[in-house]
Amino acid sequence: MTSANEKPMFRDLNADNDPEVTEIESLCLRCQKNGITKLLLTKIPFYKEVVLMSFSCDHCNWENNELQPASKIQEKGVIYKLKVENSKDLARVVVKTEWASITIPELEFEIPAHSQEGTVTNVEGIIARACSNLHSTLAYLKKEDPDSAGKIEEFIEKMTKLKSGESPFYINSFLENFNAPLPDPQLEVSYFDQSLEEIRMLGLQVPEDSENATSSVQLKEEDEDLREEVLGLPTNCYSCNAPCTTNMKITHILLLLSYIY
User: Which stretch of DSSP H or E encloses residue 253?
Assistant: First the structure.
């Protein structure tokens, strides 16, 4: 607990409070000279505690922004599904960590986990950034692969139309709830048990029982696959010594025993 005079480490970010930003001199990965990293520990309403990081280098003018979660990792994974119906929905805040993915099912578009650093933006910003990244590849593709360049231009056009807010679409990520703390009729939230691969990806220790259970299942599946497989071994015929192939297959032979009394 914090005392009356002691401020919490993660404070709500609002206009009434002056944000406490920590500045650290750090190495620039681009020019290998020193730049400045700014850290802000804050809370995102109805989300969790996060660390906002911003790096800038005066030597090469390189800048980088990143968001890292700072709270306890949840036991279950969560999926947020928003139906974007108008231009107001395009302004909803989107929080994407490094571990999260964003999808727009109508366009079969996905920003997979680990493909981007964590960021705080809005729905329109997600679309604009995706279009910008695709635009950056067009100059090269128009020379090397005109067909692919044409398809990307068509896709960018479809993405751009989404920013008008005229065509409803769904987007999956952590999104702002306009009715918080009450449910939002446009925002569907569901939870799921994380797979062992996802648990390992988060750097958590996998329970030994789960490991053993998974190993048993894998061994059983491998054993079943082996029973369906026919192995061909090169050999020689016992009668004429000519080259031939011996086929082998694992199977069960039912043994019946009769007892006569």
Answer: none
H helices of the chain, where? 123-144, 146-162, 196-201, 208-228
How far does CA 34 lie from the centroid of its chain?
31
Residue 82, number of CB atoms within 10 A of its CB: 23
Mean pLDDT, the chain, whole residue set: 76
DSSP code per residue over 19-38: --EEEEEEE-TTTSSEEEEE
Which residue type occupies 219? L
CA distances from 183 to 13, 121, 156, 176, 186 (A): 23, 22, 33, 11, 9
How many angstroms from the chain centroid is the CA of residue 160? Answer: 23
pLDDT for 244: 64
Which of 238, 105, 225 is CA-nearest to residue 162? Answer: 105
Q: Which of 60-74, 147-161, 184-198 has the highest mean pLDDT?
A: 147-161
DSSP for residue 241 = -
Residue 88, φ and ψ in degrees, nearest 5 = -65, -40
